Amino acid sequence: MIDKVRCVVWMTGYSGSGKSTLAQGLHEMLSAINIHSVIIDGDIIRQQANADLSFSDNDRFTNAKRVVDIVNNKSTDLVIVSLISPFNVIRDYARTNCICNIFLETFVNSSLEVCEKRDSKGLYKKARRGEIVNFTGISSKFQTPVNPDIIINTETTSVQESTLELFKKVCGYLKL
Amino acid sequence: MIDKVRCVVWMTGYSGSGKSTLAQGLHEMLSAINIHSVIIDGDIIRQQANADLSFSDNDRFTNAKRVVDIVNNKSTDLVIVSLISPFNVIRDYARTNCICNIFLETFVNSSLEVCEKRDSKGLYKKARRGEIVNFTGISSKFQTPVNPDIIINTETTSVQESTLELFKKVCGYLKL
Fold this sequence. Notes:
The structure is a homodimer. Chain A contains seven helices and five strands; from the N terminus they run βαβααβαβααβα. By secondary structure, the first copy, chain A, is α/β, with parallel strands linked by helices. Chain A has a single domain (7-166), classed as P-loop containing nucleotide triphosphate hydrolases (Rossmann fold), CATH 3.40.50.300. A five-stranded parallel β-sheet of chain A has the order 2-3-1-4-5, sandwiched between helices. The interface between A and B is medium-sized, with 15 and 15 residues.
């Protein structure tokens, strides 16, 4: 079915770890070398196609399954997914079911403490006040990826450095 | 003499405009896609090979001529030069005498006011106090490039954005 390289960069990490920022940066760097990619952003998917789903464990899994379907319906050679995907079972499902030759589970690694301190969307405050239930890190668990293909530390490195590191690693896998 | 693409990215602009930072960022992005480049940095050349030269108009020209010689002795496909090179005659000399198929005069554009405000190396203060003579923008002129191949605005855009913009443009010229 696959007659050329097709790559999925599946980014997992806490809310506020920098997944969307990295996705955008990677997309732009790839675009500079004429590799077209699309970004599937969990936040946007949640507002649109998957607005019917809660953040229960089951619905998180359903959400991820639908994201995999969206990935498989994209015709670009490179798909970047930005999704908290907090459980091993979700990431394993994605690895098994995304139609691609190269699946890169990418752990965007910032500690919960740092992500909560950033709280760029004000969600951690709401979660702490109980206004959001099943919030990853506060009232829902995040399982550290067991054997990710790529780890990007966004806690101590700048956006520019970590984006470049991700770009380098993805290019390495693409054998560019 | 040239049997493959050889490119020189010649960056001109005020001290503090961001030439060295852009050079480093471009070098790293190119390295991610296995394009090896070398950086020739005016500040370093001045401390080493050209330590005998002053900042008089004549010595600036001599400095640039020697930089061109250094460029022509590099065997990499891509050479990045970071040099104030404030006069049209210097940049025209470089364009004419650098052995390459693609010469990209790159104007790193920040106003003197902004560069002086940054004053990352404290040189503007020294120049204002008269401790440095013939300092570009203060006691020596900078001619705005007439027809540069690339213009990067570093006054209002972030380092990450302007580096990406430079990378995109260079990749475009390299037809990547």
